[in-house]
Structures are given as C-alpha cells and as structure tokens.
Amino acid sequence: MGEEREGGSVEAEVKGATAEQAWKFFDFSILDKVSSIVESCTIVEGVPGEPGCVRYCVTKPVPPPGGAAGGEGLVMHMKETLLAIDHAQKTFSYDIAESNIGLRGYIANVKVYGEDGVEGCRVVWSFSADSFGVFAKAATEWFLTTLLRSIVYTIEQAVLKGEV
Fold first, then answer.
1. What H or E segment, with its residue span, contains residue 57?
2. Residue 22 is inside which H or E element, if any?
3. Terminal-to-terminal C-alpha distance of the chain
4. Angle CA(147)–CA(111)–CA(119) in degrees, nearest 5?
5. In 3D, which of 8, 12, 6 has the Cα closest to residue 145?
6. How many whole angstroms separate alpha carbon 119 and alpha carbon 159?
C-alpha cells in the first residue's frame, strides 16, 4: 500500500556573505561550477532557472555508501527537475526523476536564510524520498552535507577574493 516517506535536512553557516550573495551560488544550472564534488551539470530540457527545466548532473567518485574501504568510489548521475523557485524568498525545490542509485520519489528544498544586507547567512537543504535505493538516509545526509560544504567553501572563497 502507501509507503511512508522518510527525510531529513542538512544545514550550513556561510560566513562573510549576505543571503543575496550566497543565493547567486544556488543557480540550478551551475552546480558543477560551485561544488568540487560535481563533475558536470548540464541543462538538458527547458529554460535554465525556470520551473520545469531539467539538469543532468554527474558526480566525481564518492566513497561507497556505508564508508566501505577500498573500491574506486561511486560516480552518481542524476536527472533533476526544478519544481519551483522563489528568488525573493531565496528558495527552490527539485526532484530527482532518474538516478543510478535507486532513489524513488526524492524531493528536496534548498533555502538561504539571512537578513538583507547583513553578512552571514544559513543554508538549509531538506529532503524526503519514498526509498533511498542503494543509499541509506544517513548516506544521503552525508552526501548532501559534503555537497553543501563544498558550495559554502566556494562562496566564502569568492567573498575573500572580492568576487561577489
């Protein structure tokens, strides 16, 4: 019958950047430009940044779920659809339509929190799924934490270099 959805969230503080500055790094089409663990991110359908656009992302090899020793790591590929975006609220949601890790019914929401013009903000990445496939919920949280930390690092480095 009806499966119960499971989910969670990860979050990170962004030092030195305003919410407006950080939000620019969450453009749906540039994940490979802002994260060191994403090999490629290509819009394959629709208008970039508009609900309904589809991106195809491929990660660099990541440790296998459960942190098993050895092996070359897992290269994940995901086809993701932008469901909604609100620039004023600095939030967007997307789903994973296809992946090689067996996720079913995965939906995520990314939100940047912070006061206008005030340095320092917070990013929350929440998610839920019907099934996490080869990844357990904890492995999904680990991956999203790693992904988010890599984006935050990129933002903080851009602030230090005066690029934002």
1. strand 54-59
2. helix 19-23
3. 50
4. 90
5. 12
6. 10
From 3.40.50.2300, 3.30.9.10, 3.30.530.20, 3.40.50.150, which CATH number describes the 6-160 domain? Answer: 3.30.530.20
* Chain segment 49-93, per-residue pLDDT in tens: 999 999 999 999 987 655 555 567 889 999 999 999 999 999 999
Predicted pLDDT at 163: 94
What is the pTM for the complete model shown? 0.91
The predicted-structure confidence for 3-58, as pLDDT tens digits, reads as follows 578 999 999 999 999 999 999 999 999 999 999 999 999 999 999 999 999 999 99
Question: CA–CA separation, 150 vs 163, rounded Å?
Answer: 17
**What whole-number distance in Å separates Cα of residue 47 and Cα of residue 50?**
6
Among 108, 65, 99, 82, which Cα is nearest to 29's? 82
